[in-house]
Amino acid sequence: MSRRRKLLLAFLALALLVLGTWLALRYRTGAGKPVPDRLMLAPARFADLPGWREDAVEEALATFLRSCARIERAETRSADFMGTAAEWRDACSGAAKVPRGDRGRARAFFESAFSPVAASNHGERTGLFTGYYEPTLHGSRKPSARYTVPLYRRPPELVMVDLGLFREEWKGRRIAGRVMDRALLPFPDRAEIATGALAGRGLELAWVDDPIDAFFMEIQGSGRIELAEGGVLRVGYAAQNGQPYFAIGRDLVERGTLKKEDVSLQSIRAWLLAHPREAPQVMARNRSYVFFDELKGEGPLGAEGVALTPGRSLAVDLKYLPLGVPVWLDGQAPAPAERAADRPLRRLLVAQDTGGAITGPVRGDVFWGHGEEAAAIAGRMKHPGRVWLLLPRSAAARLAPPR
């Protein structure tokens, strides 16, 4: 056999070995197709939580008690794998006995009633954490030459379906549509609604003066409208049209108009304002549309139906985490001043909300409240972080038994 032929055979053998290894890894890891997210829990101690001794946990206790008002009325947990109703009611009973504002007693309560478990996605501890806030818009209860953008109430024919009631693996997932000829069909998307699909039906809650502001208020899920007639109208999430959520920042990155690392609420809004002709088309790529209700009393309300607490309420993916669970976050947040250095964000929050962009086991959206400072922080928050769930001790022992 010639030397050239031997080299060719050796090369082919090496190529086959590399190909076989690649195929084996591809088969094992699921490369080439999305690997489904999977929440994994591991036992931990309070000493493992960075900054635990420094946090003002009495603030989180007050937030948790708001969730307890719902927990105590529930027959079962929204996600039973996080504990039974009785276990959570016992925790709420203990929380109610802690004197308000007593940091030492609040910390002692959490340490006695709960055990922390480290959350990961297939063992990957780090996930993405963003922020949201309650914006202020200018509007009127009546349309005019200035106030032309309607905010709609939930249409009566809109049907929302909790898919978790049908399949265990669909827990935390919802779909919406309208029933026609005894079939559930898609509801009009953003572009169809913007061009009048719901006009003239008396569904208008108010009219505002800026379609871009209205678009971002939908993403935030709530807002305040300073009325031309005087006073403030507070609105909150009522329903969603069932169409898929799309982050338009991704579109601007694909266009090459923004760099991925520069994407923020502020940079997206600036681009939309600077390109009024293209803005409607870009916003229409997010086919999801949010309907609002007028809020009375405390607010805004999260998906749990309780008033959100600035800096202590967290939006999560309900497929993996139940509403009402305390969550320790070890992450970062922007300083209010745009060019200032990021700050550590190590605090106890409570899962009280959800959102279309919040997907995955280690993913969260921190509610920052109302005002310019809240907007500055929330709009630029896009930081990595790790979380620990605080579960009733008996539930934690079942889910993440000591090794």
Strand order in the sheet with the most strands: 3-16-13-15-14-17
Radius of gyration: 24 Å
Shape: globular
Report low-confidence residues grouped into runs of 5 or more. 6-30
Average pLDDT, to the nearest integer? 88
Helix content: 25-40%
Strand segment tally: 17
Kindly report how far apart the N and C termini lie. Answer: 59 Å
**Count of helical regions:** 11
Helix/strand order? HEHHHEEEEEEEHEHEEHHHEEEEEHEH
Structural class: alpha+beta
Identify the notable features of this structure and list them briefly.
single chain; about 400 residues; alpha+beta; six-stranded mixed barrel; six-stranded mixed β-sheet; 11 helices; about 30% helix
Which helices and strands, and how do they pair?
Blueprint: H1 3-29, E1 39-43, H2 57-71, H3 85-96, H4 103-113, E2 114-121, E3 127-134, E4 136-140, E5 149-152, E6 158-162, E7 174-180, E8 183-185, H5 190-194, E9 204-208, H6 211-220, E10 222-227, E11 232-240, H7 248-255, H8 265-274, H9 279-284, E12 290-294, E13 313-315, E14 326-333, E15 343-353, E16 363-370, H10 372-380, E17 382-392, H11 393-399
